[in-house]
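Quick one: structure for this chain?
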Amino acid sequence: MKDKRDFLIFSILILNLFYILLLINGSVSRKDDLLIFFILLAASYVSHSFGVIRFGKFSVSLSFFFLFPMLVLFGPIITSIMAYLIVLFQYANVDIPRRIYGGVQYAIAYSTAGFALNYLGISVWGIILAFFVFKIINFILVDLFLYYYYGRYKDLKTSLKYLSLESGVFSLALPMTYFIYFSSGYITYFIIYTLLFPILLTYLLSVESNARIELERERDALSKNVNQLKRVLEVSEMLKSNVPLVDLMMKVASIIQKDLGWEYALVSLVKPDGSIDRIAYAGISEKDFQRLRQNPPTLSFVKSLMRDEFKISHSYFIPEEANVSLPDEMVYVGKYDVKDIDSWKDMDLLWVPIYDKSGRMIAYISPDKPVSGKRPKIEDVTILEIFANQVLIALENSSEFETLQEKAIRDQQTGLYNHTEFYNRLDKFVKSNGKFALLMMDIDDFKLINDSYGHQMGDLIIEYLADKIKNSIRHGDIAARYGGDEFAVILNDIDKTTARTIAERLRISVAQGNPPVKITISIGIAAYPVDSLSSNGIVASADRALYLAKMRGKNQVSFSN
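Got it. Here's what it folds into:
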């Protein structure tokens, strides 16, 4: 009966069966006042379409206050038909199967209550009996059957609690229903008017109740955030301790899982060369972590998703609906309980980047599946970002992390910056729009030295020239091993003329030095912004100048033009 079509057919058959029984039984009608009938009908329709009054999870349907008096005044056939039509044609946003079943449930409940009223007649005890019969039928068809069908079945204890609460509210209509039946003239309309007061009272109580519930919810959320902040401050001192880097990041992942409300956590370092190393995890099996570590995303891919449309605070939440394509081996998919649109989905991503003082991303945190099961709110992300700042302090205080960072940007043989870091620094110089000169140099006839004396001698010569370069530059200048026997020097805030003087001094120093084997160097000079406005352009200009120095006989300095 899970199929909606079968469900509709079942509802209609049950409705027709009850109407046949009603016709056999006959109508219970005490009045024939059309004006009262239409007043009650209109009030029932409007109040039902208005919806329910909620007390947290408990809700009350308003139409009872007018449909029950209609049952007593005009009998079960008319009332059950009207109740069915009111639910079916309500203007509230309810899907058709729910409307039909709701109408059937109302028709059955009111008509069954009409049988009870027939049994005792219109009296205090007859009205009370009809009321309890209505509530019992309503309880069976809604709390026990409908909630089960839609997967929202409440435990019996909770359902009985709601039954007693709703019965207490609805019982406010019973005295007025009794007096309406036995009244006449204008007093009848006045009594109908007083039916609004239980509704108003119930509404005001619900506003107060919901405000209190919302206040308690906000207080709980605030308390949770305060406790999380306390925990963050507590662990910040622990993170400052000089422990091995991997152990430090494993603590970070563990805190995110145990204290900040996430079931899975992954911590990744971004190396200076742009590669990503997934270094720590929590809530994930060792096997899955090793798979993830062997298949990290590229930095360019990560940055491609750091778009404003995904930004939440200073972090990035990429929902499943964004349809980001990721290979299976690159992502971790845990166990999720998706209930609604606000639930955390399988392919949801949250990245909390960590930047150093220069603005370079050095790490990022990937928490997955909030304990609440809901997609994160800005408060959740803010807590993570506060924690990420503590992680940054911990990384800055980690001598091992500093060593790893330096190793990643330095040439191991010479200690100068490597090729990748040279371009990073050159790009920063270009973006600063200040003037600078670039020297590109290499060792004359270096291949001949390697062939004549061996590669060990060649290594000694490389190290000798690197030391000469280090001793020739100022603080703020950049020296790098461009590749092989080729070196690059960025001279900050210097024009071509001064750059030539420095280059000549370096050339002479090398030529007159006392290395294991006598060497000379050729140097090409280009200047920014005179020779080019781009990093690649300035390197190309200096390379051309170096080529000219070689063509003119080596052991000399040349300009790009």
